[in-house]
Amino acid sequence: MSSSGLFSKFIDLFPSFLHSNRVFPIRPTLQTFNMPSAITEVKPVRILVAGGSYGGLAMALNLLDLTKGKHPRFSGKDGVDDSQKVDVRIKVVDERDGYFHLIGSPLAFSSESYAEKFWVKYTDIPALNHPSISVAQGSVSKIDPASKIATIVDHKTKETYEEKYDYFVAASGLRRDKQVVPQELNREKYLEESRKQISGVCVGEGLKDGKGVVVIGGGAVGIEMASEIATLHPTQRVTLIHSRDHLLSSEPLPTEMAEVSLKALRETGVEVLLNKRVSSSIEQEEGKWVLKLNDGTERTAGYVIWAISNSNSTSGYLPKNTVDEEGLVRVHDNLHFEDTIPNPSYHFALGDIVKWSGIKRCGGAMHMGLLVATNLHQEILVERGTLKAHKFLVLPVVEPMMALACGKSAISWSEAAGVAAGEDVEEMFFGGNLGWDICWNYLQLGKSFDEPKKNQAEIAKLEEKVNDLEVKENTVNQEVGVEA
């Protein structure tokens, strides 16, 4: 995801893809019966998921619902259809030992209480406590689409092993720089990492001549980092330096969005320097940095945060012919891999790793997870002869749009709704904690499988927060899952 994409969330045109109902020809089933009396053992379907963040977990949990004959949790509907049931083994492989709320990084790196809250070990997530789901800490280093075998590196033992799968889902996202997101992979070490940055943020806080914190970069990442520090540490001097003449210069956004963001940032107490490029930053001693700017001037700081996030794809484990020059996976609109590999219909990709239109954000990743879960379930049912033809959900073109937190306020924009700003916008899209409650509740991570899920009214309310800026009164949702 682009640097601003990390914190441009909760606004997408999903699930507007749900209006599409394309029927695809049936593929021959793999199971055959030579004798009417033959009893064939049906083995569990093995689904391997690379990545356990928003999209990967959304896919795994919605697929779990579907394969147990239920409606997917994102629908908010009740009902069970035994004909839709499939015995599955869903294995999620993730580098971290827990779910980290990525878009909450500015809070996690500014407050120890938020740092503690925003990382939950997978073993402590009730929704994942089910015999059909397992999570392994590691990374996929290679897949062979022809044999459907993945090579995995176990992060605990450092050993490499092979894993056979029936379906593969690439949801490993993008890799981002330090200070922007945690680099540590275990919760205990992550807390040490966050405490170190929080300690730096607090250098000289409250002192009249304190050197303060300098945030370099005026994209969404820099704006949110600077504003959260200024809000949580109101006696700290916070400066944001940006090399262009307006904020958010790397995104396809209107000038008004940049102007409103600048006004909101200054209202939080952040000093903003535009058209200034930092040519070097040197730590002369602990708590004292000297920055040299392109105009020949110098500036001192107690701590420096580089918020120019260079996001790199994690798709190195995929065949080269599946990705573009930036490492993003080329997919069909049903999120199957393009037909450049063997067994493309058994391979899906979703989230930030996918080449698609629009600004990358977690709301889009979660709804891609629903789309893949539904389409993968369709693949299984057709292959087993339960369905005669696929009814795939498809992904639409997504227009640029953004919601940006700025302290106690937020700014949002879409082509249809224009620019909006204020505390009500922050409450709508971020809920006072950079979306922690919204994402946790939407994924329903705190509920075990057998607990009652959120109803349609509750889901609809959350949908307004994780989707685009308009209430989707004109969205026609295709029914997914069991029959009502």
UniProtKB/TrEMBL annotation:
InterPro entries: FAD/NAD-bd_sf, FAD/NAD-binding_dom
UniProt-recorded Gene Ontology molecular function terms: electron-transferring-flavoprotein dehydrogenase activity; flavin adenine dinucleotide binding
Pfam families in UniProt: Pyr_redox_2 (PF07992)
Gene Ontology terms: cellular component: cytoplasm
Chain ranges of the FAD/NAD(P)-binding domain: 126-369
Name listed for the protein in its UniProt record: FAD/NAD(P)-binding domain-containing protein
